[in-house]
Amino acid sequence: MKRLFIATAFFALLVLAWHLLVRAEIWSPVLLPGPAAVGEYLWASLLDGSLASSSWVTLKRLMIGYLIGCLAGLPLGMLTARSNTLNDTLGVLALGLQTLPSVCWVPLALIWFGQSESAMLFVVVMGTLWSVLISVDNGVRNLPPIYTRAARTMGSTGFHTLRHVILPASMPYVISGMKQGWAFAWRSLMAAEIYVTLLSGYGLGHLLHFGRELNAMEQVTGVMLVIVLIGLLADKILFSPWERFLHRRWGLNG
Amino acid sequence: MKRLFIATAFFALLVLAWHLLVRAEIWSPVLLPGPAAVGEYLWASLLDGSLASSSWVTLKRLMIGYLIGCLAGLPLGMLTARSNTLNDTLGVLALGLQTLPSVCWVPLALIWFGQSESAMLFVVVMGTLWSVLISVDNGVRNLPPIYTRAARTMGSTGFHTLRHVILPASMPYVISGMKQGWAFAWRSLMAAEIYVTLLSGYGLGHLLHFGRELNAMEQVTGVMLVIVLIGLLADKILFSPWERFLHRRWGLNG
Amino acid sequence: RPAPAPDGLLRLGHFPNVTHLQALVARSFSREGRGWFEERLDREVRWFVYNAGPSVAEAIFARSLDAAYMGPSPMLNAYVRSAGREMRALAGAVNGGAALLVHPNSGIRTAADFRGKKLATPQLGNTQDVQARAWLSAQGFAVSLTQHEVYVLPTKNADQLSLFARGDLDAIWTTEPWASRLEMEAGARVFLEDRDTCATLLVARTAFAETQTELTQKLAAAHRELTAWISSHADEAAARVRAELRELTGAEVSAELLARARRRMTLTDQIEAVQLQTLLEQAHAAGFLRASPDLTALLRHCTSVRQPS
Amino acid sequence: MNDPQAPPAKLLIDGVNKTFRNSRGEVLALDTTTLAVDEGEFVCLVGPSGCGKSTLLNLVSGLDTPTHGRVLMDGNPVTGPGSERMVMFQEHALFPWLDVLGNVLFGLKLKPGLDAKERVDVAKYYLKLVGLERFLKASIHELSGGMRQRVALARALAPNPRVLLMDEPFAALDAMTREQLYADLQKISAAQKKTVLFVTHNVREAVCLGDRVILFSPNPGRIREQFKVALPRPRDINDPALSVLAGEITRALKSHTA
Amino acid sequence: MNDPQAPPAKLLIDGVNKTFRNSRGEVLALDTTTLAVDEGEFVCLVGPSGCGKSTLLNLVSGLDTPTHGRVLMDGNPVTGPGSERMVMFQEHALFPWLDVLGNVLFGLKLKPGLDAKERVDVAKYYLKLVGLERFLKASIHELSGGMRQRVALARALAPNPRVLLMDEPFAALDAMTREQLYADLQKISAAQKKTVLFVTHNVREAVCLGDRVILFSPNPGRIREQFKVALPRPRDINDPALSVLAGEITRALKSHTA
Ligand SMILES: Nc1ncnc2c1ncn2[C@@H]1O[C@H](COP(=O)(O)OP(=O)(O)OP(=O)(O)O)[C@@H](O)[C@H]1O
Ligand SMILES: Nc1ncnc2c1ncn2[C@@H]1O[C@H](COP(=O)(O)OP(=O)(O)OP(=O)(O)O)[C@@H](O)[C@H]1O
Ligand SMILES: [Mg+2]
Ligand SMILES: [Mg+2]
After folding, report:
1. Ligand 4 centre from D237 Cα, in Å?
2. Domains in chain E, number
3. pLDDT one-digit tens code per residue, B181-215
4. Which of C264, E57, E110, E154 has the fewest CB atoms found within 10 Å of its own CB?
5. Is residue B30 situated within a structural domain?
6. What is the pLDDT of residue B254?
């Protein structure tokens, strides 16, 4: 209770200080819009639906791309961890591509797919896939061998071992890899949306970009707040349950 | 030896397939430049120095911003982990800002600092700082209490405990946080460079953007290769020694 | 990859910019339900707005556009990059509409004063950028991505104004309406004015021009008719341009600004082959293009080419 | 044992040795060793740390293969691990992603011929035997070290293997629990005629449980001496006769190591 | 001990109890307990798992504070941990980021009055005592469980504390190493008049080392019985007289638990 109060008080004070600083007009209002202006923008764009529709466009792109990336990265990561040949080929490729910020794919994606949803999806998938692949590979590779040995003595082989031992045992790595994949996907989508305007729908990144084009800093700030909010919610909804499960079952923290 | 050979053969085959596909002219040459064209571009821009100067500009921005982010994030993370009040205020703030792709800061940074190096630095610092802070906080928070308890019974207190027990004990988390901070800094710098042209120097992101502006896909592809190379080298040079140390001393993998 | 448009649909691209006069006027007709091209081609027309030539080229490469208004440099660039395959010019649209402006405090009086100064252009490799580099080279400055006797800085139009106002830029080579805005809002001085160089063209995707020859010719004809109409209905056209810009960008363009801008522009439906050849060579010299191929294929579908006499 | 009329040994370790290669060179973990174990026999392996006891168990389980020699079960070469030879590892090797019941069920699910209900009943029976009937749903990390060892014991016993390979199974238990389990293990192995290889550091434990106690010495690991334990069963660890034999074996152990 | 003329007890646990609060409610880990330990006395605590032995050690070390009552050392209240009461934890609690020597040096560096060379000499002396002189530079994860416990022992002994609090220090050791350390620990604590609180599951170990053996019973944890061990020192764990007393204590332990 007391801690909640401190946190609330802190953020209220922060907003108040922000408001007073802007009111004092130390800086020009274009440099820093006040909380009132940001609030107004948020309210107005909530009412006219532009915020909701942009958030939906962005989330749809993110979800689909992320899902594809995870669905491909999981089995590929398992494979590269179990086969030396795959690891020396696909694994090395993944290592290289993982260090490539996926926004760098944007020019090629635009040429290949046009200014279309597919281009965005491609960028998001590139952001997710390699990072998930590598985390899963790492997780499986670093499994204590005792688990598979124990399973083998109990008669488990092949796919049964994969499904009932290797997959659950590498869970903590898989979750943290998926979390990192999410962070990268989110970052690359925002970067791509800010960088290119799509014909097929304006996402939050576009709103941000338009805010800059119009020198409307209250729009920029408002959209940033929405992005933070979505990020926090995604974390809560997508990953917290898994982490709580791991914590409870394995006694792991984080 | 055999594995090295397989890897080499695989990548040689990949390049060959790429070459043949382009030669077969299945796609228009704007869609996919051949390895020969990419090689030519790389060679030419190595000779005229533009590649080296851009890499240097990018690396300088990255290094300075990353360093600032780490230097600020490390002590702040320790503090938020040790103090409930700081955690409920600064910690919550950091959690929110960490989910904000730091490319979203670009519009504000441009207004605040102009199209200058400071704007780029700001974006890179925002990319590094929060992620390092949170990892360090996590690391310190999840330390097995047995270490500090043991140290206290041996007469260690206050700063001595911080310096000689908490800091080294949270090393694995700190390293992985710094690694993630690096990945975010690298991604945000690329996104920012691609998005805005600076008056003070062209980085690799700018070369990529210019490649797109000129529809010069061999330049885009060439610069992407350089980015991958730098990413891999940075990983090798910055993090591999630490990870090897952890592996050797703690018996950790990864 | 996006499929070619279904029959009965024509996809046209343009900028929300006064130098795309024909597009703005035609689109304002479409908005009233009596579309200029729709009526003459018996097609549904869908308009797409871009703000940079390379995006138009990307869209054409990706087959998501059939025809577009765009500047000559990006068009040439796309033509050369695709080894002459993807891009065809149909007609001229607007000439001129560009100027080199200098900051009153920059101390630039003569061409020699540009040494060490910062000169902004709208975009790397666009028409003004190529021209600026060519002009600077002609004045004896070494300018390239690594040589900076004059700093040529590709900067977005939106950013140019504020940077210029803050004194971060000494000179700007740009198009209308930015040139006039710089004059009116930032006190910029005109150093050079360009009323003649090709600024906007009507182009088409090769596959479109070759498979739908008749439609292509009808499109060019309608465009020529529109150009003539704008010349003869200057006031109504100006009103339509202002209204259309308000619709597209939400920003008001004052009548004075438009008039000032309009004075620098020359309407045309012709393409001067020599100008294109010159631009091509300049782009080649600036290092943007590695080859300067023959332009015959580019102009194959254009019926109004003015060849050198 | 070499009588041609006798049935073949249940387990025959036949001239086996095992070399490990590590960064500093080769380690001869187990020197050439021959050992025959009869059906239903309970054999205890005793010896100082690093003398190759775990290595031998791994070879018999089929998880490792000998550098030379062969391991036979019922006269057939052992080619890999199998559920007829259940292993209890020195580390507990429980699966942290399953609860206590889930861990015991894991091996049972791989055994054909049982339906879901029967499996749960069997698992519960063995968990009750080790005194954990109240922890069916507990997570592994919530258990104390001794409780984990007991879960591992239940997991190894539940599929009713013919051969049990146990590596210091009782090290983390307190004296009372341990005595209870000595009694239970003797009862089970006698009733079901199990063949057991049992590694321990505790000589009294070895004498209490084993039909035979085998002494190892290290560097390289090899068998040094064998003791038949002819005491009547069930045996009590506090029986003075047992202490006498244990003292004798301890002295032998010291003499080999010194 | 209650003689007003006698010097105050080295350690006085005075009417102490300790309650833990967890998700399911409160646990009375240690019921009201009073215990006085004289200077130079070696007291062993024995009792089943969960009876509050570690809890008591934590209270004496100053790492935890009692819910009621007080802990006095030399007549002064204990307010926090200090290097005059060195603890050997049930888990080994070694620092993985330091090598073996570094771990032993950690406590020595916090002790004033030694220069670098002397510190290394002291550390090496104690590492030699526990038989690890060849592992000075080894990483902790490279050691076996028994070796880790021996490093922890050296770390606790090296700063030469007046009071030693040891929580099952010898659980992971094999019999031979253990016997060696019984002898060394008796020698050290006698020579330096150390006051020792020693927790173990092994009754024979308690009888071998302790001047007094204290029996705990669980739920809630409390002292049930005390035994003076009057056998002459140094004692050998295999001494029959010791076995007799151990048997008696074991029976008492069982009767309290049953
Ligand atoms: N995987 C391995 N690689 C290299 N050396 C090994 C390996 N496994 C065991 N050894 C070595 O083989 C020898 C025998 O090891 P083993 O684990 O069989 O001993 P043990 O008798 O079980 O000892 P303990 O009582 O400590 O469990 C040791 O010297 C050990 O260092
Ligand atoms: N931090 C804690 N929070 C809640 N309960 C605790 C805590 N520490 C100990 N307990 C409880 O207090 C009781 C005594 O624990 P303690 O660790 O002192 O037992 P012990 O005698 O050392 O047992 P063992 O022989 O297993 O080490 C146990 O029931 C335990 O569950
Ligand atoms: Mg072993
Ligand atoms: Mg304890």
Report:
1. 25
2. 1
3. 888 898 889 888 888 877 677 888 888 888 888 88
4. E110
5. no
6. 38
Is D192 close to ligand 2, i.e. is its CB under 6 Å away?
no
Q: Which of E19, E53, E215 to mutate to test the pocket of ligand 2 (most atoms within 8 A of CB)?
A: E53
Tokens of A144: 């204590």
Domain that holds residue B77: 38-250
Q: How many residues does chain E have?
A: 258
Within a domain: E83: no
Are D174 and E250 a contacting pair at CB < 8 A?
A: no
Domain membership flag for residue B244:
yes
Chain E residues with CB under 8 Å of B242 CB are none
Q: What ipTM score was computed for the predicted complex, to two decimals?
A: 0.76
Q: Tell me whether residue D72 is in a domain.
A: no
Asked if residue D144 is part of any domain, the answer here is yes
- The answer on pLDDT for C146 being more than 70 is no
C-alpha gyration radius of chain E: 18
Would the pLDDT of E3 be above 80?
Answer: no
Other beta carbons within 10 Å of D72? 16
**Domains held by chain B: number:** 1
Residues in D closer than 8 angstroms to A146, CB to CB, are 89, 91, 93
- Quote the crossing angle between the two packed helices B204-213 and B50-82, to the nearest 10°: 130
- Give the distance from residue B173's alpha carbon to the nearest chain E alpha carbon, in angstroms: 13
Rounded average pLDDT over A16-21: 85
Q: Model's pTM, two decimal places?
A: 0.80
Q: pLDDT tens for residues E71-116? A: 999 888 988 888 889 998 877 788 888 889 999 999 888 888 888 8
Does a structural domain hold residue B55?
Answer: yes
Look at residue B218 in the predicted model and tell me its pLDDT. 85
Provide the mean pLDDT of chain D: 86
> Measured between alpha carbons, how far is E62 from C245 in angstroms, rounded to an integer?
78
Atom number of ligand 2 nearest to Cα E18: 12
Residues 193-212, chain A, touching C (beta carbon < 8 A)? 196-197, 199
Q: DSSP secondary structure string, chain C?
A: -PPPPPTTEEEEEE-SSGGGHHHHHHHHHHHTT--HHHHHHTSEEEEEE-SSHHHHHHHHHTT--SEEEE-HHHHHHHHHHTTTSSEEEEEEEEEE-EEEEE-TTS---SGGGGTT-EEEESSTTSHHHHHHHHHHHHTT--BSSS-BSSEEEE--HHHHHHHHHTTS-SEEEEETTHHHHHHHHH-PEEEEEESSSEEEEEEEEHHHHHHSHHHHHHHHHHHHHHHHHHHH-HHHHHHHHHHHHHHHHS-PPPHHHHHHHHHHEEE-S-EEHHHHHHHHHHHHHTTS-S-----TTTTTT-S-EE---
The least confident of B129-133, C143-147, C188-192 is C143-147
Residue A67 sits in a domain whose CATH number is: 1.10.3720.10
pLDDT of E172: 66
The set of chains that have 3 or more CB pairs under 8 A with C is: A, B
Range of the domain at E127: 94-160
Which of C271, C273, C268, C270 lies closest to C308 in space, CA to CA?
A: C273
State the sign of the Cα–Cα–Cα–Cα dihedral E101, E107, E110, E114: negative
D50 CA distance to ligand 1 centroid (A)? 5
Residue B224 falls inside a structural domain: yes
Asked whether A118 and A157 are in contact (CB, 8 A), the reply is no
The ligand placed nearest to the CA atom of residue E175 is 1
Select from C118, C144, C146 the Cβ nearest to the Cβ of B199.
C118
What amino acid occupies position E233?
Answer: R
Does the structure show a pLDDT above 80 at A148?
yes
Q: Hey, which of D54, D63, D168, D205 would you mutate to test ligand 1's pocket, going by the most ligand atoms within 8 Å of its Cβ?
A: D54
**Least confidently predicted of D114-128, D185-199, E22-36:** E22-36
pLDDT digits (tens, 9 = 90+) for E175-219: 777 888 888 889 888 888 899 999 988 888 999 999 999 998 877
